[in-house]
Design goal:
It is built from 10 helices and 12 strands. By secondary structure, the chain is an alpha/beta fold. About 35% of the residues are buried. It comes from Thermococcus litoralis.
């Protein structure tokens, strides 16, 4: 039994998760779900594939139900406690103390909590992972107890965004969203095209996932930037494939590419970036 923790946009994260299961042929049986998490049954392949998700934060291995399941947690000298479904400092302390008490016969242990939150953020887990264990409690219809076994890597996603040689901070979508969009296709492999590729954020995700990558844009400067970014990607992430990039008007794609595409993943031009919420009149 497992649990997945959704990201900042739970509805989008959930939609991506179900598309992801179809894309990779995972069989999922829901045990219990809430707005921010889902407990489910699946085979171990979900552990191997979790890193391909963009909108989910943690994968948790459930060890049991009820507080008595604390006895089944694996000893850790240093651990933290994440609780979902409750925001209760006293409860957090009680659960941490109970785990520590259970570990006493195996050795000394300590637990800690970051300020103002009751669930350990992924970036803090990664700094000590896997030596520091994150024990997780889900309060729903039942109480589920587990241990975080995989986390989305925010440091990798940040590197893919801000360390590229060419950047367009306002116009480019985040790499995390690009990953979500690829999963939403439900297509596992084949020829993938971004016809409004800009500096290549979505195309770089195609390459990271081992897909046949194609990109086009009507702006030659954007294509030049995309090529520089993909060269950087090959060096930093050791991607094995290259991408076919073309300066091309989207209305003339059939003249630019002589292949059949299995999926088109893109964010087209949406007008000038706004620095404020427009009035109803301005929006119309």
């Amino acid at each position: 039994m497992y649990a997945v923790i959704y990201g900042k946009n739970p509805k989008l994260s959930e939609a991506e998760f179900w598309a992801f299961t179809k894309r990779f042929g995972l069989k999922i049986k829901i045990i219990e779900s809430s707005r921010h998490w889902m407990v489910f049954d699946s085979d171990k392949s979900v552990e191997r594939l979790f890193h391909r998700l963009g909108g989910s934060l943690k994968l948790v291995k459930i060890v049991g139900e009820g507080e008595e399941a604390i006895r089944d947690l694996e000893y850790a000298k240093l651990f933290t406690v994440s609780i979902y479904g409750r925001d209760d400092w006293k409860l957090w302390r009680e659960l941490g103390s109970e785990i520590k008490k259970n570990f006493k016969s195996q050795g000394p242990s300590k637990f800690f909590k970051p300020a103002k939150v009751y669930a350990m953020p992924s970036e803090l887990i990664l700094k000590g992972f896997p030596e520091v264990k994150d024990f997780v409690f889900f309060f729903g219809g039942n109480l589920y107890v587990g241990e975080t076994i995989a986390v989305a890597d925010p440091f990798e996603l940040k590197k893919l965004d801000v360390e590229r040689p060419v950047q367009r901070a306002i116009l480019s979508i985040p790499p995390r969203l690009a990953r979500i969009m690829v999963n939403l296709t439900e297509i596992r492999q084949g020829n993938f095209l971004d016809p409004f590729c800009g500096i290549g954020t979505i195309v770089q995700e195609f390459l990271l996932q081992g897909l046949n990558a194609y990109g086009s844009d009507s702006n030659p400067k954007a294509i030049h930037g995309a090529k520089k970014n993909l060269n950087w990607l090959k060096k930093e992430f050791r991607t094995k494939r290259g991408a076919h990039l073309e300066v091309c008007d989207v209305r003339k794609l059939k003249h630019c590419f002589r292949v059949k595409f299995d999926a088109i993943v893109t964010e087209p031009y949406m007008g000038k970036p706004l620095k404020y919420h427009p009035t109803k009149g301005e929006a119309i």
